[in-house]
Amino acid sequence: MANDLVFVYGTLKENEPNHHWLTDKENGESKLIGKATTQERYPLVIASKYNIPFLLAAPGKGEHVEGEVYEVDEKMMSNLDILEEHPKLYERKKDKLKLEATGEVIECWIYLLHKYKPHLLDLPMLNAYFSRGSHGKTYIASEDDLSDPENI
Question: Which of the following is catalytic: 16, 66, 68, 84?
Fold first, then answer.
């Protein structure tokens, strides 16, 4: 398996609504490496009428975000790019994360929302996302096209 590492912080995490994307062999191969936290602070907010978690490309603001690192093959990476609408909606970039189990700092891919309305920075910023969290904003699955950040 090719070793692309990808950090997931929202609905793709274990026990979250879209985790099945990472476990469906039709999408490619993935293997959980472990829990990790961003070295950089980012705003993790919940927005849109579907209560989608967005990691805003505003380094230095927000929190050190917790999530999971997966080793994925080329097919899975390609399918994640489709899911995240890279590069139209999210942009994938390399970033440094600290593995919880070992404290090791690794570099892996992370999806950030670059084109967003400034009001999103006024929303509550989370350090970890859970669809059924205390925020009360449960994720709503949608087939709607979210590729126009102006609608978010």
Answer: 84
